[in-house]
Amino acid sequence: MLFVAATLLGIISWKQLKMEIFPNAELPMLYIQVNARIEVTPEYMEQEAIIPVESMIAGLENIEEIQSSAGRRTGSILISYEERTDLKYAYLKLDEKVASIRSELPDDFSLQVVKIDLEDMNNTLMSLQARGSGGVDRVRNYVDQHILDKLENIEGVAAVNVFGGRQKSVDIILNRAACEAYDIAPSRVRTILASNMNIRQYGGAVNEQGLRFFVYLNAEYDHISQIEELILGRGNNPVRLKDISEIYYGEKEEETISRVNGKDAVSLEIINDAQAN
């Protein structure tokens, strides 16, 4: 009877065990964190910090792959090593290389070699890279249109972060004089756009002609003329968006740059739901 009870308890406990994404093992990876003391462009981060460091470490032993990304304040270089690599030795050699190049980089940047902590990665399900013909912007557009939603809809996936390439957008440049003449504040334009387009996020910059907004088309809009006809103010003569702005197709300013073994790529970081298996 005691044996049967113990067996049943074991079966129940086994069924309630939660699966872990990462086992208690050491990953053959090291990580270089690049920090900018001031905000810079991703291109500057890539040219002045990421590429020089990649070139310096590429000749180290047992490296299988190098992935990198560059943003406005931070960049990263992930080095994957061959299995059974002595990571303590690899860490020392990598740290030596990084120390030798620190003085050659602009004062804007600082570097730090970091060991991968599995506990910090518990919510990262996996990382994927996409490459193809036609340039990284074309690949990013394909990922946004055909892959991103499918990944986000998988049960247990909390979020998908995408790095690299420029997103397709509609570029709206407000005419400051026209806005003042019609008494239309830029904030009202932002509100109308958000309420009519289900926009996921905005990017913005100021240029010589006025305020610039980058917005992403919802699938229900088939042509740019539908956006031009959005009504901003009512009265005897309704004010439409086209009356106070120029609107055309464009691409959002690149905020991150992703590379795999020195080649441009689009990277996807899949974050799992902490409550899911």
Question: How does this model look, in words?
Answer:
With 277 residues, this protein is of the alpha+beta class. Among the domains are: 20-122, Alpha-Beta Plaits (2-Layer Sandwich); 168-251, Multidrug efflux transporter AcrB TolC docking domain, DN and DC subdomains (2-Layer Sandwich), CATH 3.30.2090. Helices cover 31% and strands 32% of the residues. The protein contains 7 helices and 14 strands. It has helices spanning 2-16, 42-57, 87-102, 136-152, 176-181, 186-197, 224-228; strands spanning 29-36, 63-70, 74-81, 109-115, 124-130, 157-163, 168-174, 203-207, 210-215, 231-233, 239-240, 245-251, 257-260, 263-272. The strands form 3 sheets. Strands 1, 2, 3, 4, 5, 6, 13 and 14 form an 8-stranded antiparallel sheet that branches. Strands 8-9-7-12 form a 4-stranded antiparallel sheet. Strands 10-11 form a two-stranded antiparallel sheet. The longest helix is centred in the middle third of the chain and has 17 residues, at 136-152. The radius of gyration is 25 Å and the shape is elongated. It starts with a helix and ends in a 5-residue tail after the last strand. The model is unreliable at 199-209 (pLDDT under 50).
